[in-house]
Structure formats: structure tokens, C-alpha cells
Design brief:
Number of strands of chain B: 32
Oligomer: heterodimer
Shape of chain B: globular
Distance between the termini of chain B: 53 Å
Shape of chain A: globular
Structural class of chain A: mainly alpha
Number of helices of chain A: 10
Number of helices of chain B: 25
Distance between the termini of chain A: 15 Å
Largest sheet of chain A: 2 strands, antiparallel
Radius of gyration of chain B: 28 Å
Radius of gyration of chain A: 20 Å
Number of strands of chain A: 2
Strand order of the largest sheet of chain A: 1-2
Structural class of chain B: alpha/beta
Chain lengths: ~230, ~800
Amino acid sequence: MDELVLRQQMYGFLWALFAGVPDRSLVDALKDERMQAELARLLAEVPGADRALDRLRICSADELAEDLAVEYTMLFSAPGAAHVPPNESVYRDNLVVETPPQPEINYAGSRRVFAGLYWGDSTVAVAGEYDTEGYEVAGEIPDSLGLELGFMAHLCGRERFFRETGNGLAAEACAYRQAKFLREHLMEWVPTFANRVREKRPSGFYALAALLVLRYLESEVGAAVL
Amino acid sequence: MANLSRRDFLGLAAAAGALAGVGPGLTKKAFAKGTTGNPSSPTSTREGQWIPSVCMMCGGSTGIKVLVSDNRVVKIEPNPENPIGVSNISTDFYAQKAKGGAMCPKGNAGIAQLYDPDRVKKPLLRVTKEKGKDVVPEWKEISWDEALDLVAKKFKTLQDAGEEHKLLWFTEDSSFIHIQQDFCNLFKTPNFSQHSNLCDVARKASWIRAVGHDRPLSDPVQSRYILYFGWNPLSAVKWAHLPSVITRGVQNGAKMVVVDPFLSMTATKATEWVPIRPGTDGALALAMANVIIRDGLIDKDFVRDWVSGFDEFSQYVADKTPAWAEKETGIPAANIERLAKELGTTRPATIDFWSGPGQHSNGVFGGWAIAALAAITGNIDRPGTMIIPDKRGEKRYVVKNPKISQPRIDGLGTKYPLGHASGIYTEIIDNLRTGKSPYQPRMAFVMAQNLVLSVPGTQNVIDALKKLEFMVVVDNFMSETALMADLVLPGTLYLERTDLVGNWVTWSTMALRQPVVKPIFGQLTEPQLIIELGKRLGLKDADGKPFFDGLKYEEYLSWELKNGAPNLTIDEIKAKGGVWIDTVGTAYEKFKKELKAEQVKDAKVDEKTGLIYTEATDKDGKVTKTVLGVQVGGKPCVGFNTASKRVELANADLAKKTDANGKPLPTTPFYTKRDWQPDDKFPFYLVNWKEVTHTHSRTFNNPLLMEVQGWNPLYINTETARKLGIQTGDKVIVESPYGKAEAKAQVTGGMHPEVVGWQHGFGHWGFGEVAKGKGTADGQFNVTKSDPVSGMALHKEVCVKVSKA
């Protein structure tokens, strides 16, 4: 049960990193020495990490809030050369445009595939998972990284609830759904996404944050229980 | 330290959990209640729900049906119940609609526009102070409340200083216009301007001179002779039904003649392409009129009864012979003779023109000359001619506006005597840049307008926008104008919002644009944003009543619809499939409609002019004359909406007005050379155009459309290219006195030898990763200038030199 609490907390933290421009509570969390030490322990060997981690330490909370807000915006919010859309469908789905043959004008038809758009099949699948599990979202495309991580936290919370209320079957089903969602969704695109963030802003905080997410997801996949 | 185990994260998880506010407790946001998708009047199928709506990939507003499945748009098809996309003539619409409607590639590509990852998602506050083409600005996402508070705070400084007039407002002209006008009126800025000024106001000024209506519509499907000047409706599809009505007209036996420097798509399908020097269409029209009048090919009855100023016009064109016109236009005199005789002997004929002749400094009076061809041949408001639309629609929402004491800064109605209400963009931008206007604007609100790429003189526009102390841009993409903004607000696409659309066909119909999905980033719709801003600023009407408090946009639209010709609420039009069609279809010869006896019982008739009028004397003895119609053939008719109630080929009152250069206006259709002529240094005319693949400068990040047309090569005549040593695919340098840039050559026999040209809208350095760096922007070669009469932006009055790179 403790492990479940920690997993829920971990997903909650990762959600907070990618839920939007960091709010004050997240900035304060990042300014916490214990947090900084843990991040350094997990990520210090990553090239450029020292600069990003120093930033957390050296900047005042106000400076850090401003810096992270701009970095978050330039990477995940404002379109432009540095933009890395934090949405699953952009990395996974295709829009297929098919034109049927028209023999009367000697046209053989065509099939064109366009990648990289919002609201692809995986978005619909993710939204379906949310519906099933009572995870409600509004005003955002369902397959954003923040929402997907929040969903994992949500599932951990539900599993905890079922275990605490003695509903073992439901808890097992919930654990299974976590594993399924992790493999079928998050792990299908976060590796590419994390690389893309690193390419765009190698010494930024969010390159580390994305890597942190990836490493945690990998650890989850590797865990026997899943 | 890769390959971490879950155990390795325990410390971090514990640290996160130990901190107040971070972790599961914070997931309140993620667990927030909400719904997605709430379409109205859908038709459910196994595939999903088909929802009728209206396209807005361009302003043509084609009727569409949108298939929504799992809250996602999966298909868009034409809606044959909406005339836009079927036909502009009612009888033809009813005959054709069972065969289905039409939609252009842009409409088909709407899904990729909606789900484009380069869309602006959240309000973005500028961080970088510097502005300019080479500046890549940094932004900070802020909340909607913060954004609206900021705009209100800035605009409040104008209110506090009594400088509300120093707010400039720019918007496109097809959506939520009235509520924007209300905002500007109540804020008390006179400087509300719309896109039309960059499009067709010269044509509007020409036609309104002639027939008293600024947008008569061509009826090719019933025509026997189709004569188009500088218009490419088979590709630059203003309305999706145009290719159908034109090609069916030709299939029915009409001859189609296209006058254009470029062998456009329409010209390739024409019976005859007439290559012409840019800006000389008026000369061709006058010479054709010369022949038609000389050979007695006019419609004598129509001219006698319904044309005013024919004698003055005849006198003016007496020396505008084909030989004279050959020197101006480059078209052999014999061809002009033949075309004139064909036109004079073939009825009905539809004679129209759009931006080709209009976007030159001589555009308005040249356009009037083209309209005169329709007048002398009786080809007005009859089947197969130019139909004056009976366009009744919504009633304008009634607001008691406070008085605005300051004038506009663009000389609308004063400096530009035949200017259109949409304003004079070039004058605004140039005044902003140079500080020449009576007052210097301080702020701007730009709604879905990419001024930097759309107003001629790109660098001037950039320099002008730098002068503003605060600029808000609402857009779907980070346009080059958004890149100059202090605050960018995400717009909605047509699939995400509600609006009313008055259809541009020849009889009265309206359609409802309705959201088929909720705004996908949770953004406010533009009307909501205006209402919220109006509330924050406490805008009041003339009676001191807060206007925006409690206002709901759907109720506002519903009032307009219910009190207008449709007499329906929004819910009622939804129940009718989102389209209202007047049972009175296309009417012809409306000018002959007789006035009712009670209307004329106290009226007098002017014996000389035939005008029917009443007189009223006020308490000071001042007599006011109200013209009701005109007496023709002994019958009191409503006539045309002109001063003479006839089609006008002369108007003496014009001589009292001067153009922007201080010259008195001619009193008849008139030809003079355009101001900017080729010379030894810049020997080629440079023209631009639009194609079906793109709209303005705003569809260039759409991967589907960019696959169809992903570059704008510079078209050069084969012989001209040979002399310059240029072959297709070569890089060339295009240079004018105002700009120099590289382009890719496309050598063709389908271009006038003195002209080079390309498709407008390319050459983005912002906008999106698909659009960026594709093709050449055309506005950079131009100066920020309008025609001196209507204020039409001079997109096509440019001369350049071209050399191999």
C-alpha cells in the first residue's frame, strides 16, 4: 500500500511538471533542498543537467517561476521553431486522405498519409480510457502528457481505494489498466517526445523533466507487479 | 544512471508527497468537471453525427456537413441544402441540389486546420522587447483572466486619457462583425476597419457607381456569353458553386472569354484567352463600347429607359477606338473589334471583373467602364447577366451608440471620396508609420488579420506596428503580425464557434455556422472574448446602460435573426437544418417593379428626369425632397438604387469631389494609365493572384493544401525567359525599388511577355513549421499605397526587374 501511495505521489508530481506553466506550489517544491538532491541523484550524470539543476538552486523562487514559465511556454505552448507539442497523437497518428478511383476520367485514386496532428486515433482511445475510469477533463486535448500522467495518478488512487475497501478484484483490474495504459500509450510516445525536448532545449529544465518522466515510466514497465 | 528501478524513485516520490500542494492533492485540475462536444441538430448515423454548418476556410462560406465521432471531426462534406456550393440562382439551385453540392480543397482540408499542432493554444504574453522581422520573440503563457485584465488595463489608460480614438481595430469581414463594431462604437474609437479594403473595394466602388449595388453577381449558367476581366473563379473560388455554374454555362453553349495577363485556370477552360497588359482593362472596355455604340449594337430599349448619361459616355468613348486601345492594352485592334461585335450581338451576356482590374491606381473608373459594357448591352438584372442580389438577412442588433467626436485616421469618405466602410488599411498603416495623421494611434486590436503579409509594403507595415505601445492579436496561428504583438490570444476556427452567415447568392438565404466541437484548447470564442473585455471596461450605451453585462452571443444572434427577414430564432434555424431560404427565389428586372398607388399618391414627377419624388417642408421652411422611383414607359418604377434611379454612365456630381491626390473625379467611366509603369530599371509588371489551394495568407501551414500547392514559383513568359537566360526551376532574383528576394522560375507560354506573376500568400517566416520558408512573399516589393479613389490596396501595381540568381 505504501508503494501505491508513493507511485500516486510520483505520478502526481510528474503531472504537476507537465500540467501547464508551473504554479507557485511547484516552484516552491523545486526550490526544496530535498527535492533538488533527489533530482540531482537521479539525473546528475545527464549532460547539461548540472546547469539546469543549478538554476533551481541559484534562482530565487520568483526568478525561477518566470524562467520556467517562459521555457514551458516556448516548448509546449507557443508555436514556433522550439515547439514540442506534448500530445500523444502528434507522435503516433496519421490522417489518411483517400480519394477513390474514377475510371471515367482515368484517375487511379490516391491514398495520402499525414502525420503530426492533434486528435488522432490515440486521442480518441485515451479519451475512451478516461471515460471508463471516470477521469474527467475539460478545455484540453485529452492526450496531453500532463493529463496522461494525471490519469496514472488517478488510477493509482482508485487502486488504493479499492484495496483499502477490500475490493481486490477491482484493484487488480485497476492495476492491469495502469500497465495497459503505460504500455499502449505513454511508452509509445514519451521516448520520442523526451528526445525532441532535449534536441530543442538541451540545457533546459524541461529536457530533464521529460527525461525524468521517461525514466520513471521505464522503471514502471520494469517493475514486476506490472 | 539509466535503467533505474522504481525503487530509485522512492526518495523523489516521498519528497514530492511531503511538499504541500504537489502531488495527488493538486490533481484537482486534472479531475475538474467538464464535457466535450455538444453539437446541435445533428443527424446521428453509425459513423457518428452529421452536423450542418458553414465553412470558413475562406470567406465564401460554403454549406457543409461535418461528421463528428467521439468528439472528433472525421469528415467534412458539402451540404446541398445550402445554396453556397450548389448555385447562385434559385431555380438552378432547386434543380441541382439533388446532385449534391461542391466544396473546394480548402474545405476538404479543414480537419488539418482544426488539428494543426502549430495552432495558438493559450494567451501568450510577449517577453522579448525588440520587434522586427529578424526577432524571434519569447513568450509566456498566461491565463485568460490575466490576459483580459491586461487588455482592459491597457485600454483603460486610453479611456482615462480621453484617447479612445487612438485604438485601431482590424478584423476580417465574415465573422462576428456586429459585436466588434458595437465594442468599437461603445469604446468610442472610430477606427474600426475590415479586410474588404485589401480585397474588392475598387470593384464595389465601380459597380455602385453604375448600378447602385456594390456586389452584383454573375449568372453564367443562364448566359450565352461570359466575359470576365481579371477574374479566375474556376480556381480563385470565391463561392464553391462558381466552377459548376460556369462550366455548365459553357456546356450549355456559352462562349467564355477571359481577359487576364496570365493563363489562369479559368482562362484554360475559356473559349478564348485574351492576354492583356495589367491595369489596362478599362481601355479595352471603352474600346469595346466604342465599337458597340458605333455599330448600333447597344440594347436600345434598355439604354433609352434605364441608362442615364449615355450621351456623355458615348461622347467620351468616341475616340477610344480599338486602334487606341491596342496601344494601351497590347491587344490587336482587330481582336477588340471582333470581341465587341460578339458581345454586342450575343444576349444574354454576363460581364464581370474582380481584383485583376481593381488593384491598380486606375481601378475604379476602369471598372466602371467594364460595368458600362453591361449597361449599354442591357445585360443587367436579367437572366444570364449581372444580377443585383435581393439580399435580405438579419437585422442589425440595435445599440444606442455614444457620439464619437474624433475622425478616423484614414481619410475614409474625405481623402478617398468613394471609399468603402471597411476603411483604408494602407492609409492607416502609413499614417501610423510616418505620424502624418492628425493624431498618433497608440494601441491596436487585430482580429484574424495578418497585416504584415497582407498589406502592401511589408517593411512599412513592420515599421508601423513597431510604433504601437500595445498590440493584441487574436489568431489561430503565430502569423507574422502575431509575432509583432504584445499579447497573442488564441482564436477559434469555424468548427468551434457560432455565427450567422448571409449567403452571397442572388436571392435571400442565410445559414448558421455552429460549433461541431467545443474549442479544442478550451479557449474563449471571439465574441465571448469581446463581451468579457467590454464588461471589464464597463462599456455603456448612450443611455448609460452597461451593454455587455449579461450579454450572451447566441441571444444576440437570435435577436438579429428573429427580427430580420428569416424571422427565426437560433433554435428554430437549427431545427431547419441550419439554413433559411426565402421562398421568393431569384427575381429579375427588379428595377421595373412598380411603386404602389399609395406610395405615389402625393408624389410629383420631374419631367426632365422622370424622377418620382415627394417634398416635405419643415417648420423653418426647408424643403426636403425624397426620391421614390422613376417614371418609365408611363409606369412608376422603383428603378435602380442610384441618384437617377437608372444605371449611370455619367454623374456630374463626381466633378465636385477630388481624389486622394487632389484631382477632380471624372464624371464618366474613364481610362488613364495607372501611375506606376515599367521602365528601363524595372521593366516588368508584377501581378499576383489567388488559387483554390489557399486563402489569403492563412492556410499555408495546412499540410494537405501545401501538398497540393506548396510553393509559388514566379511565372515568366517563355520568350522573356529565353532573353533573360532563365529556365524553369532556376533561382531568380526579383527586385523592385522597395524589396529584393529570391524566387523560383516557372517558364510558361501562358503569361504576357511584359508581365511576371505568382500566387499570393507564400513566403512566411512565422505562422507554422509547415508554412515557414516556402515560396516568396509578394508584398515586400510594393509600397504601402491605395488607389486614390476607393482606397483599394494596390497589390498589383508593382514593377520589378528579374535576373537569374
